[in-house]
Amino acid sequence: MSGDADAVAELEAMWREAGRRVKRLTVSHAFHSPRMDAMLDEFAAVAAELTFQAPRIPVISNVTGRLADPEEIQTSGYWVRHVREAVRFADGVQCLHDRGVTTLLELGPDGVLTAMAQQSVDLLGVPVLRGDRDETEALFTALAAAYAHGTALNWAEVYATWGARTVELPTYSFQRERYWASGPSGPGDVAGAGLTATGHPLLGAEVSLASGAGVVLTGRLSVADQSWLADHAVHGQVVFPGTAFVELALRAGEQVGCGRLAELTLEAPLVLPGPGRGAVQVQVSVAGEVGAEDRTVEIHSRPDGAADSGWTRHAAGVLTHETALPEGAEALTWPPAQAESVTVEGLYEELAAAGLDYGPVFQGVRAAWRSGESVLAEVVLPGGEQAQAGSFGLHPALFDAALHALVVGGLFDDAAAVRLPFAWQGVSLYAAAATELRVRLTAVGPEAISLQGYDASGALVVSVDSLTLRSVSAQQLAAKADVDGLYGVECSGCGARER
Where is the active site (predicted)? Predict the structure, then answer.
């Protein structure tokens, strides 16, 4: 026995030297050690007489440290191993953590296992009973701790013992409105800077050039101020939607009396900084003399707060005067006659797998049909964003959702490719503030479509003569994010600065 004591003391010293806490357990037998060998046969004989049942909830095995096999734990041999072999407690806790478990309840006489679990991984451990506390107090303290950390509780069952019931809290006395000195920035008093407020969610101000040869609209984009933009992610990057570029161009055209976008080519993606990483300034400039038939439009951006950095041109095009409503524009029959319904279930999971990770604001497709060379779809702007629709000509998220039906419609051979808008031609907006559209998409080339969007009454809202889409890779976006980053390399003492 003295040899065993010496071995235990040596092991304790080794663990303490490694910086680990060591505590001897007060137990009646040396479980999980060779000291149990003498009783294993007798234990196995008794266990063989028992009837085992499959567990109704998953069990993490202390023998393996993994999710237990329901068949294996219904054998006497497993429980013989359980007595003799080492306890894989830390492995079991890690297994739970890897499966997303963040809260553990210890159903036992004290909090011994809770303390050890919290030393193993970062999670909340709550003992239901404590040796030095009233049982009811300890139980409700545990429930409260779990609830405060996001665990859902069935309060009706909790209170059933006492015959209590839950009631809704009164609203008035508990409602609060908080006002902070700092927060999402807006256009503020732009008049004090000699500018004119636009009332547009993405463009805060505009100024007409004194020469009369143009107008510039400016704005500031960030996922903090325009949170819905974060729902448009491509290959893991938040990318300003192509439909939003069209919205900016049309808004600028409205300012100079040129309501039709004759063409707009997207030259470079605008990758927005992630949450808490800043913003970008954006300029939409329209050139040309007042009253000219056509006016050129360009859209540039640069990192916010980087006054010494250059501007990146993202889009360039031509604005022209509005055209009359096309003849027969209200001839859309709905629901589509002689059209084959196609499922939209799993559409956004499929897009996410391909690299287009759309959040709730952009998940607008509700139904789709295929008819010859056309795809027809119903798209809706989610309710939480509909209040903003009146501030846009056409909300970019609703406009973007109109293009998602291309995937289920199969207009392109390579449906899995990540395609983004590249070149727009003939874009006209006939009604503003739409919250839902009935859309017809028709193939007009290998990677090009035409689009018409109608409201529920059958009136034409938007039409696009041609939209060319191009594939984009993760490497292209990553390179663009690096170029437009907020950080640069400065050469101390040489006066040079490299971006």
Answer: 232 (proton acceptor), 400 (proton donor)
